[in-house]
């Protein structure tokens, strides 16, 4: 009863605060030069922040609500009484542009990744590949742990972190059964999977939602190809995974030096399984070689969607299992970022702040730390949807930022920071899934997660420094 009451109070507060802001006279908003249309968007932005942080409703529902509110309050097809109050009708957004956020190229990229993960899971390709990859690591407990970390991270680069974690947790069962019930390394394996999935997702543009959101702002002269992203992200991921391995061995030293794992040997390579594996590797190859053949990653993402649908390897029933809520969540973030840019609110907000008094390094560190803290308590996708538009607007106004990599550096740094938060079960779906296994508690996850996040930011600073020396930006 008390929990239900608290949830109702949170919901009421999350609704009343943006309504209060909306009802204020525009002249009372402490942002110099703000217009009525920007005032309305500010209220929607505040609602998005509150709903994404406190989750009085499902976060994907918040994204749909954002798009609906933008259509009502900001579009040229909203209620007449609201449209007529806007003196400059050109500041209204074409309603079709808002609705196009549901079919953004970013959404197509995710859809392709989801189809790959779904097909691999349906035909057992993911589990078979993981077993094949884990066998060479032998029976030494610490080496098997390293193997589990590396395999999880590799899969997470090309599949969703959540799908990878679900797959690897299934493989974890025979691993845990090979250990004594009081062996601390049980906890190290349970933590290795979500943390490696979170870190591994940084390796490719499709590995984790913040990366895909960042691509929206990495265009023109700041564009980064699939292979270029991997050229700097994969070394960072590999180094960070080794650090994670040492930390797990330090905090949870194995009781037994050897572990014996039994694998299921009943897997048979059927025609369908061979075709799924072929499409999987062709898609990855096309993503990696986009600079050579000229087809961008968004179009390549539709290749597995098309082939799997035509061959019925993924049927209508299978499609019901796709993470449509994630696509809706990302769509809402794209719509919010689009509106911030289209109405000029982000620019107006930046112009109201004297950025010249702050050193660019301080501002970059502030944005990265803020993103890390926010992503600890809310979805990293939601965090990136909130912080990346602001970072993009900041980048053109921060004096001296070009000497430190400019907008490209800032967007990449903030996107990485969003994915480094893994201190709580609510921080990421992989964390929640691992915590649900019952092998670890919140305190153990937080102790290691805070340290990993802090070291991640330090490593990120080193990565940026190296890329600057290599003139990457």
Q: What does the model show?
A:
With 473 residues, this protein is mostly helical. Among the domains are: 101 residues, no CATH class; 215 residues, no CATH class. It contains 23 helices and no strands. The longest helix has 28 residues.
What is the H/E string?
HHHHHHHHHHHHHHHHHHHHHHH
Q: What gyration radius follows from the Cα positions, in whole Å? A: 23 Å
Category by helix and strand content:
mainly alpha
**What value does the average pLDDT take?**
84
Give the structure's gist in a few sentences.
This protein is an all-alpha fold and 473 residues long.
Give keywords:
globular, mainly alpha, single chain
List the helices and strands and how they pair.
Blueprint lengths: L1 H22 L12 H19 L4 H15 L6 H4 L11 H5 L5 H18 L2 H10 L6 H18 L2 H17 L7 H16 L8 H7 L10 H26 L19 H18 L1 H4 L3 H14 L5 H4 L4 H20 L1 H7 L8 H18 L2 H16 L10 H14 L9 H8 L5 H28 L4
Helix pairs in contact: 1-2, 2-3, 2-17, 3-17, 6-15, 7-8, 7-9, 8-9, 8-10, 8-12, 9-10, 9-22, 10-12, 10-22, 11-20, 11-21, 12-23, 13-15, 17-20, 19-20, 19-21, 20-21, 21-23
């Amino acid at each position: 009863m008390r929990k239900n009451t608290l949830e109702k109070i949170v919901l009421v507060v999350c609704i009343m605060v943006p309504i209060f802001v909306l009802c204020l006279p525009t002249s009372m908003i402490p942002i110099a030069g703000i217009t009525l249309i920007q005032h309305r968007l500010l209220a929607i932005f505040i609602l998005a922040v509150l709903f994404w942080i406190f989750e009085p409703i499902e976060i994907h529902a918040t994204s749909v609500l954002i798009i609906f509110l933008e259509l009502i309050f900001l579009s040229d097809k909203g209620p007449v009484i609201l449209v007529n109050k806007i003196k400059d009708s050109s500041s209204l957004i074409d309603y079709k542009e808002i609705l196009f956020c549901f079919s953004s190229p970013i959404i197509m990229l995710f859809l392709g990744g989801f189809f790959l993960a779904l097909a691999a899971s349906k035909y057992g390709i993911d589990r078979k590949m993981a077993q094949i990859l884990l066998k060479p690591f032998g029976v030494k407990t610490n080496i098997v742990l390293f193997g589990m970390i590396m395999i999880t991270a590799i899969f997470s680069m090309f599949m969703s972190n959540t799908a990878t974690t679900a797959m690897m947790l299934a493989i974890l069962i025979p691993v845990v059964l090979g250990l004594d019930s009081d062996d601390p390394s049980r906890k190290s394996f349970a933590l290795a999977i979500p943390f490696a999935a979170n870190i591994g997702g940084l390796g490719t543009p499709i590995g984790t939602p913040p990366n895909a959101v960042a691509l929206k702002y990495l265009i023109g002269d700041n564009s980064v190809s699939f292979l270029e992203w991997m050229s700097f992200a994969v070394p960072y991921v590999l180094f960070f995974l080794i650090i994670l391995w040492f930390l797990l061995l330090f905090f949870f030293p194995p009781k037994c030096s050897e572990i014996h794992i039994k694998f299921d040997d009943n897997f048979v390579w059927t025609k369908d399984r061979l075709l799924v594996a072929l499409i999987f590797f062709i898609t990855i190859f096309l993503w990696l070689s986009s600079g050579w053949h000229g087809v961008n990653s968004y179009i390549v993402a539709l290749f597995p969607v098309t082939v799997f649908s035509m061959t019925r390897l993924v049927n209508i029933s299978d499609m019901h299992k796709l993470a449509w809520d994630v696509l809706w969540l990302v769509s809402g973030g794209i719509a919010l970022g689009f509106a911030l840019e289209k109405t000029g609110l982000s620019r107006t907000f930046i112009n109201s702040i004297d950025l010249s008094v702050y050193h660019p390094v301080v501002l970059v560190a502030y944005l990265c730390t803020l993103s890390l803290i926010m992503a600890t308590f809310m979805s990293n996708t939601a965090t990136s949807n909130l912080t990346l538009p602001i970072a993009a607007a900041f980048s053109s106004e921060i004096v001296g930022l070009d000497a430190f990599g400019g907008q490209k550096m800032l967007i990449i740094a903030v996107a990485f920071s969003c994915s480094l938060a893994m201190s709580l079960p609510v921080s990421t779906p992989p964390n929640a899934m691992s915590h649900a296994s019952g092998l670890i508690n919140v305190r153990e996850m937080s102790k290691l997660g805070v340290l990993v996040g802090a070291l991640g930011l330090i490593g990120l600073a080193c990565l940026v420094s190296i890329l600057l020396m290599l003139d990457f930006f």
